[in-house]
């Protein structure tokens, strides 16, 4: 049962209820004016916090006077000490009601509704009022299509435990900004986040984060990622998709600055799409400027075509265009280019035309050898230089530069050298059975080039092992059987053919030990 009278208003019917009160339709008994009357339930009126919140909402409404905000008429308490205030009655439906009926709203209609919301929010923000609970159920659409913002304030500000039962927190979680979830102070940018969630809901048919319990949805508001509206509705213009995603940025600083800017950006989307469609190239596109030049028509056509060309350039047409229009992709490419330049560009030491001392000249030469691929030679040169100047107090700056370059060379994996040496070993292995002399020459060359390079110790060890295998199977030139040379004329050689077997055996066993 609803009350018969509230103040001077005769109650007709109940039209809604929420966490902060119940709303009825009634008529003023003297003027006959139809109005909406919101009362604070007796269960809430017993707590001072809710009375203060109710009165603060009244004070906020008194500051507002805009076509897109419900008008405030009166407030007071009746004989039964029921707190109430009277506002404009809007004949129509809520945005949530329309969404239940139509599921989602065409993008042009969504822009038209959102622009009206922006105008109402801009007025509220200008007088210092932040809604803090913007959602479809708090947006009224009159029969002539006018949007009216209602129900200013957030019911869970006071006594959140009690209001959780009424569903206020549940109803707000899907449209609450990350900073509100974290308990930080809400400002106009918080309303813009909620506006983005409302716009997303109109375009897609569901909020950005819709599935889960209220705590889970609030967690997603802080850390979750949502799918852009175009992933659900491809016909949405990319400009509108971009605006919606920008409003839903987690960082308030990355959102659009205010509701007025949002409204202007949304109207630009409509103009761009209309211009693109109305001036799309047709069969007679090439003859568009072929008519008479008189009367200034050429200038107007040129301006129109320039604007059209700009709007077409703004619309990404392919995956590559979208990538090249992405700021982070361009930044990544720039970093790669700068990194390549930094690698090959001469350093301060390289760039000096004439080193000021001999150690600096050697350091410069070693650095250049390393950059051109001779890491072994550069390292040997640096190690020798360090030994020479280590005790010279006046050369300690060069010593530190040598240590830095040595550390860099040792920590850089010479993958191209590894590949080169491994390929040489493979060629030597292939030649061992057919041309052992050539295989031996390859292996000796590898040892000469890389024997002291610790980064290539494994392939160098393999080269030594292969070389020993070749030497066991192929006798040296002096060891080949030559019966024409008298044995007594040969120099004493413990490894030669005339050496006594016991001595040779003893030498071999000694060497093995």
Write down the oligomeric state: single chain
Question: What helical percentage do the residues reach?
Answer: 40-55%
Q: Give the strand tally.
A: 9
Residue ranges: pLDDT <50 for 5 or more in a row?
155-171, 283-300, 348-353, 476-513
Distance between the termini: 110 Å
Strands of the widest sheet, in order across it, are 1-2-3-4-6-5
Helix/strand-derived category reads alpha+beta
Assign an overall shape: elongated
Radius of gyration: 43 Å
β content, as a range?
5-15%
Number of helices: 23
Overall pLDDT metric = 78
Instruction: Give a quick account of the main beta sheet: strands, pairing sense, barrel closure.
Output: 6 strands, antiparallel
